[in-house]
## 1
Amino acid sequence: MPRPLEPVSQSTRITLGISFFVLFVAAWAFATLGGFVSRTFLADPITMVQDGWLLLTRFGFLSDIGVTVWRVVGGFILAAIIAVPLGILMGAYKTFEAFLEPFVSFARYLPASAFVPLLILWAGIGEMQKLLVIFIGSVFQIILMVAVAVGNTRRDLVEAAYTLGSSDRGVVRRVLIPANAPEIAEILRLVLGWAWTYVIVAELIGSSSGIGHMIIDSQALLATGQMIFGIIVIGIIGLISDFLFKAFNRKLFPWRLA
């Protein structure tokens, strides 16, 4: 047994990660191909791959994937543009925090799915409604997490800046933001993962395209292979975006690894 918190090599990490997926697919195949679970309720891996290939080659599923990616990225960027500055202000200035924090703490517990009926009334069933669902699901989380990160900045850095004659605005610009930039980037990476859960909620109602729309259509046909394929595609895209975000953060903030 490994010791608690003992690091593992990169090759071991990759091997163990792949092993879990292999065991998962093997258990899935055993349950479905072995007849323990009805294929009406859970398609086997072979059927899922065949249905996925048909979706990609005959039913234009690539365009649905593109639409969903656009919605996630668009809603997330809108949320980040507004949330990051507000979070920095809340973390830096306690009066601003006292003014906004109660509402932000309240709003972050509101499920984005609960706003879908209202957003359809306000924005219709077009792209704006779907972007707003992702925006609402992401913006309050980012604000609060960024505010906490900035508020926990080492006080000796701030005091040193004041000792060297920095102004209040200079402390924010030259100390608080650079010191917390890696943490803010990590927060954005985490919330981007949450945004993928909100887009499916946005696409379940009043949508004519996207991965969520395909899943709902497949449900009506009891095509569980297509449904599972859509879910797996979301996971793969999310995993790719997560790896890209991590690589970008390592490139942009190499000192964070120290």
## 2
Amino acid sequence: MNREQASRVLQQHGALMVLGVLVIVGSLAFDSFAKPENAASVVVSSSFLAIIAIGMTFVIISGGIDLSVGSLFVLGGVLAAYGSQYGALVALLLPLAVCGVVGLLQGLVIARTGMAPFIVTLAGLLGVRGLMLAISDEGATTYLVKDRAFATLGQGEVLGLSYPVHVTIALALVAMVLLQRTGFGQNVYAIGGNEQAAALMGVPVRRTKVYVYVMSALLAGLAGALNAARLSSGVTILGIGLELDAIAAVVIGGTLLTGGAGGITGTVAGVLLLGVIQSLINQVGSLTSAFQQVVSGVFLALVVVAQRLLSKAQRLT
């Protein structure tokens, strides 16, 4: 294996390697860390972030960014809880419809006006948060999930894992195929690598951009709906900073912030890595949960520096 191949492997699978090391160290250091109950807790708590991060992966590979997913997550939860009084189908479709429209509007503005995704989705973050507060009387009203079938979607289990985990696994598999084995996935990579060259090759740049932002919004709304089913209520104080966690997981997983490179496997590994770090901090006991943000921030900075060095090494070879 030459230097270029080694650099590519480290960039794509570095998070998975670090995850494996942390799991081994945690298992040796703490008796309770390797217990099935703790592993299941990490996986379940990470599943909602993973769903959001899958959509964020497509956005970042295309060269964009989506800051609205945290607000869409909490809006999806509130709408799902509100809609549950009309049945499970409404509880699931209402947040998907509203969040999908938000993603469509953001995608159209970005694709047709050329405005920076950071600005457009930042406006979306604020606007969606305001819409959620208007629906919930500025957070004073918490809607409860009234449909038992919908609540089961978030609380039921199969093979010892809750339904949201199985949904996450299914979505990850579909996303892998979509990204690696379809023309749409190749278009996403092409646009992130060089948008002007992609347009000259006949890639439908505008349409592809709209699709990735709709996908990101739909997955954020779905994650919020599943979380509401799990909690049996549409909690209005959730989702703050969740977009940063999703971006961190995607970048830690090896996706370049500049676009054009990345994958779903790395993103899932990045999400689990953040979950394992939180679990290890809880195992220590003397550290607060806020310490995870410090560790995650330092780790993210190291990953970005490593990506830059690896990219430079690939150009030199």
## 3
Amino acid sequence: MSDKVQAYTSERAEAAQNEEQTEEEEESVDELQCPECGGSLATDTEHGETVCQDCGLVVDEDSIDHGPEWRAFDSREKDEKSRVGAPTTNMMHDKGLSTNIGWQDKDAYGNQLSASQRQKMQRLRTWNERFRTRDSKERNLKQALGEIDRMASALGLPENVRETASVIYRRALSEDLLPGRSIEGVSTASLYAAARKAGTPRSLDEISAVSRVEKDEIARTYRYVVRELKLEIQPADPEQYVPRFASDLGLSDEAERRARQLLQTAKEQEVHSGKSPVGLAAAAVYAASLLTNEKVTQSEVSEVANISEVTIRNRYHELLEAEESIHMP
């Protein structure tokens, strides 16, 4: 009798299991078929929609894509394209891959640490800093990149210029160009070169004002770095200084456009040859302000451009002569 009961129970269990499988299959078929016309469905991953291929009914929309937006065909390519974690940067000596221990003596809940825990965290911070700069090369790099960041902030240079300057300094360090030269000198020269490459140049006077080395050393080191690393840097264009000077002086777009026209005329007449691009830009801005009835004094332009008023007057007359020669019959 007990054997019959067991057999009956097992049969009921198998029947229930078969019914569940049938329901699941029917549901899966329903999911693959259009509820309107019974046609096949297709998933549009670009728009996140499931659409009937026959009648065009949108069955599902705003579906979540749990995978990455890129494709990889091997493990190496997958590792290269993966962006998990913080982005690396050349502006830090360890490229931002090390761990920082915060200086707030608080736990995860914002509570103050006890005296023994504070001492322990202080020891951990000390050892962490020692491990981050394990040799003299890393200490050198840490000091130089800190200098680049400080000077770039003082000069208002964007992040891409800092990144380029960091790459130039790393190349100089790897090619052993530093012996006999100061860290501050090479880092300043790297920033000066990066600013010129990015089209946001700063004059040597501006650079030396925020640097810890003299102007002559910056110029000498800059020529050496450019020559040894074979950097392709075009001569500074006076027009690149115009937007900054005009903005600092509060001039209109019309005055800035007029200054550019004066400089383009000077190039056509070859007046710019052998002249300081900063002086030409300052004189063009001063002349444009007068031509557009926006009164700006020579002393104000001199202060913004960091050059003498005598230079502005000389370049000013040369620009006007070039402009007049164009219009002469």
## 4
Amino acid sequence: MTLAPGKKKEKLDRLAELSAVRDDEQGVSLWREAMRRLRRNPSAIVGAAILVLFVLVAVVGPFFVPYDPVDQSGIREGVIKPGSIPGSSAEHWLGYDHQGRDEFSRLIVGARQTLIVGIVSTLIGLTIGVLIGGVAGAAAGLGGRWGRLVDSVLMRIVDMLLSLPSLLLAVSVAALLGPSLVTVMIAVGVVSVPIFARLLRGSMIAQANRDYVLAASSLGVRKSKIAISHIVPNSLAPVIVQATLTLATAIIEVAALSFLGLGNPDSTQPEWGLMLADAQIYLDVRPGLAIYPAVGIIVTALGFTLLGEAMREALDPKLRR
């Protein structure tokens, strides 16, 4: 579900305020208190378990798959016929796909491709967004009149990007660059740039009014050093939380672009979104070809969402119980 532009900005600004929350009266750090709450949160435990399983499957699984994911053994053996695709068996746990390849092996190898694309696209958005948000936040908090002008210009650009539906923006970028795996990563990364930028900027502005910043300024420390060495490190908490949530949406958007034919044009390379797209014309013959990758996408996105939301609640004092 896509949030309305106003609601999206309000949510980001609220999350940015978390970095300005003071430690509790007993002197326990915000992150230590958050970790204690996460260990007691069932949603965080379930989300973390799903993600550990997904990462293990993606990293280790491809070394132990029973068959080559590109080997068309089903066609070679003559078991794939028009209107008939064999299902599960003792040798092929999830059966064959429409080109006679082992579905289980492709699903396991496709998990690695999905993980890599999701992480790289999130890192692209995080890197560019942190750069823009860091400049805007430092300019607004420490730059005086001209700094506020720079911040205003950057934020209007960010607001324009936030006003566009994320999937529409990703499709536009992917269509402009042409279908490829790199295009998918860039397109999904561009979608998350304004989110990270606005979030870090709001967090840095909240930190700019803290006592340690005023103390450093009174001691004559350069503003650039205050921003880089002090404000930015203390402003990253909500950004890290958002990165976890962005991974969930990135995996879904990558699958959506592949489903629309804007992903990797090489169909021999397994990827869950592409597998889902290839299976749509065989739903009446083997619906499992669409169900297996769809379940993988849903469960993985659920894991990132559960963990991310639990982290947000653990860091937000208004949501603590």
